[in-house]
């Protein structure tokens, strides 16, 4: 058994080794990389990414990243390709094959068939003298000095290098496509990240209505309004203008500070200048505003007109935070 210090040192050594390998890759970004980016930018088809073993898993991640950042991509397993999956490849596609050695049997069998398709072939490869590298139209060099595995066998540093090269490709393409956060949201509508980028306050506005009392309302009427709408607050208005807000906290403070509440009205216990937000703002901005002011509800306006209250629970239910 190793002690904690020894275990932590082992972990740090792995991270430093992989970080060193990635830093070394920066010196091997050649014109081939730029050519691949420009080729994909002008591509009428899709990017087909293939690999075997751990490289196949990396290929799937690269495909996912490309798709989510605006570049249509499909994964094709190298072993399945020669058993029917070559039909995935269309005339205008570009093919990326990932392999550390570039000489695995499945890759050597696959490459001649890929060459017959006349599609451009990109090799993300860790051996520039390999069969894959020699047959490729473009080479993205992911050579590593050694694996982080103590036996220098398990794909660790090499797969990190492959993944980083895929990220570099995807981000360059994203930047050159001027792919914005709005574009990103279109591909992630169901997740929290997507909702943060497109969901507006009016989309999460509480269905419980718009609690409201006049400034001369009795404390009883104030409590009834807060209780009825179940939003933890009611808005105080005069002549259809917002003059304040009363929350559950204001009610508690009133009870602490006044023995006789019968002589009080809404204007006596309300908080003035309540925080508000326009209904067309992003819902995530409502959350940030609540967090900054340590509150759990915001008055919602439509061009200055009171339309309701958005509560922290409404945002939680939507899963945007």
Summed over residues and divided by their number, the pLDDT gives a mean of 92
**What is the chains' assembly state?**
single chain
Sequence stretches where pLDDT stays below 50 over 5 or more residues:
none
Over the alpha carbons, how many angstroms does the gyration radius reach?
30 Å
Strand order of the largest sheet: 2-1-3-4-5
Estimate what percentage of residues fall within beta strands.
15-25%
- How many β-strand stretches? 11
- The 3D shape can be described as elongated
The N- to C-terminal Cα distance equals 41 Å
What level of helicity do the residues show?
40-55%
Helix-strand pattern = HHEHEHEHEHEHHHHEHEEHHEHEEH
Structure, described:
With 321 residues, this protein is of the alpha/beta class. It has 15 helices and eleven strands. Helix content is 47%, strand content 18%.
SSE map:
Elements lengths: L3 H22 L5 H11 L5 E5 L2 H15 L4 E5 H4 L12 E6 L5 H12 L4 E5 L5 H5 L2 E4 L15 H20 L4 H7 L4 H7 L2 H4 L7 E3 L4 H11 L3 E6 L2 E7 H10 L8 H4 L6 E3 L4 H11 L3 E6 L2 E7 H7 L3
Parallel strand pairs: 1-2, 1-3, 3-4, 4-5, 6-7, 9-10
Antiparallel strand pairs: 7-8, 10-11
Helix pairs in contact: 1-7, 2-7, 3-7, 8-9
Keywords:
single chain, 321 residues, alpha/beta, five-stranded parallel sheet, three-stranded mixed sheet, 15 helices, 11 strands
State the gist of this model.
The protein is of the alpha/beta class and 321 residues long. The protein is built from 15 helices and eleven strands. The strands form three sheets. It has a five-stranded parallel β-sheet with strand order 2-1-3-4-5, with helices on both faces. Strands 6-7-8 form a three-stranded mixed β-sheet. A three-stranded mixed β-sheet has the order 9-10-11.
């Amino acid at each position: 058994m190793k002690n904690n210090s020894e275990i932590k040192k082992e972990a740090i050594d792995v991270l430093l080794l992989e970080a060193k390998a990635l830093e070394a890759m920066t010196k091997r970004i050649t014109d081939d990389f730029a050519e691949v980016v420009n080729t994909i930018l002008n591509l009428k088809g899709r990017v087909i990414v293939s690999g075997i073993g751990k490289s196949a898993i990396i290929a799937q991640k690269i495909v996912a990243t490309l798709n989510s950042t605006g570049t249509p991509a499909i994964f094709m397993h190298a072993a399945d390709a020669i058993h029917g999956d070559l039909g995935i490849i269309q005339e205008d596609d570009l093919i990326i094959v990932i392999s550390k050695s570039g000489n695995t049997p499945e890759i050597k069998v696959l490459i001649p068939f890929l060459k017959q398709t006349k599609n451009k072939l990109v090799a993300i490869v860790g051996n520039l003298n390999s069969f894959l590298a020699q047959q490729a139209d473009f080479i993205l060099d992911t050579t590593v000095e050694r694996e982080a595995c103590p036996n220098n066998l398990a794909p660790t540093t090499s797969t990190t290098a492959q993944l980083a090269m895929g990220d570099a490709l995807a981000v360059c393409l994203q930047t050159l496509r001027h792919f914005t956060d709005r574009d990103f949201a279109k591909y992630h509508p169901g997740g929290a990240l997507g909702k943060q980028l497109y969901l507006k306050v009016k989309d999460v506005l509480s269905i419980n209505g718009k609690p409201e009392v006049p400034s001369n309302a009795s404390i009883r009427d104030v409590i009834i309004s807060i209780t009825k709408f179940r939003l933890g607050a009611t808005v105080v208005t005069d002549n259809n203008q917002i003059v304040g807000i009363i929350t559950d906290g204001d009610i508690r403070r009133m009870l602490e500070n006044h023995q006789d509440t019968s002589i009080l009205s809404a204007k006596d216990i309300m908080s003035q200048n309540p925080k508000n937000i326009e209904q067309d703002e992003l819902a995530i901005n409502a959350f940030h505003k609540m967090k900054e002011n340590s509150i759990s509800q915001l008055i919602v306006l439509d061009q200055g007109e009171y339309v309701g209250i958005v509560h922290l629970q409404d945002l939680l239910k939507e899963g945007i935070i």
